[in-house]
Amino acid sequence: MYVVESKGGAIACMVFALLLLGTWPALLTLLERRGRLPQHTYLDYSITNLLAALIIAFTFGEIGNSSLHHPNFIQQLSQDNWPSVMFAMAGGIVLSLGNLSTQYAWAFVGLSVTEVITSSITVVIGTTLNYFLDDKINKAEILFPGVACFLIAVCLGSAVHSSNTADNKAKLESLSRHTNQESNTTDAPPKSSKDFLVQLEKRRSIKVFGKSTLIGLSITFFAGICFSLFSPAFNLATNDQWHTLNNGVPHLSVYTAFFYFSVSCFVIAIVLNVVFLYRPILNSPKTTLKAYVNDWNGRGWALLAGLLCGFGNGLQFMGGQAAGYAAADAVQALPLVSTFWGIVLFGEYRRSSKKTYALLISMLLMFMAAVGILMASSGHRNQS
């Protein structure tokens, strides 16, 4: 199997993972804003997300010669490594719950703020756990100031959401007064930010007007906690720090662990979303399995999103196995990419107040500083 051994190779994996993991949320957000039901989108996404893991396992996991201590992917499937397999599958379950939750959080809180808050929580909790699980191979004097910067970014992200919500409320109140004053005028194409918000609400599949801000933030923080646990679980699956494997049984390779991780992620996603077809949450429309099968509107984008996320997660784990999973959490810089897509594609913060813009810039600057510091803490794992 192919093993990333150099620090440079690990950082390259992180950079590519960052680009992929920052882009797929934008695709799912685009589909929701065009009215495609989240249940349909996530079912499509889950299929190709698993496909990416299979491709990685049967290519990188089978490259080169197999040995007793470093068996290839297929050879490991028949070994007595179920304690590690269970850790990998637990990681897949919490990741699936987190991704599923963010689908709804994007609608309530916005793509940019959701990604910043969830990623920051992931770093604050998950990176700390990984630091100790990795036997402190990362430089603590660099790592933890980076974690503190992520924590500040969480607070700024909440402030951005609160300020932007107040801006949107003011825009809608202005629209209501304008409509009452000019009720007899001919309708014109929406040009202002307030008209944009109304038209967006009419198209989208998840209706958010009139809903409490706390709903969106609660979903976001739940997702962040789920995300903070999947990487430590994967770390335990590949490195067996708790010595759960029998003597002589080799550790799971990153590719075998990622396979089991993705299978559990797929199963929980399919089960929950089939239930949500008939019993939707947050007042989403009901649908059926037949309607899903026949819904080809935007299916290509949903399938592409699953591939991007799958390959992004795989690259993150490959880099983490080489340089330490704490440093690999630098891929949580993905909100920098997501915020770009949120502003360019979706008009987030369209004509917002100066206060909102100031908070947004501060949040992103703090986030960039945190990512740079975290990546600088990279260590090197002994692969023997």
TrEMBL record:
Region (Disordered): 173-192
Pfam assignment, any one: Ureide_permease
GO terms for cellular component: membrane
Compartment(s) where it occurs, according to its Swiss-Prot or TrEMBL record: Membrane
Broad class of where this protein is predominantly found: membrane
Keyword Cell membrane attached: no
Entry's transmembrane regions: 6-30, 42-61, 81-98, 105-130, 142-161, 212-234, 254-278, 299-319, 325-345, 357-376
Topology term for the membrane: Multi-pass membrane protein
Protein family (similarity comment): Belongs to the plant ureide permease (TC 2.A.7.19) family.
Name assigned to this protein: Ureide permease 2-like isoform X2
Organism: Cucumis melo (Muskmelon)
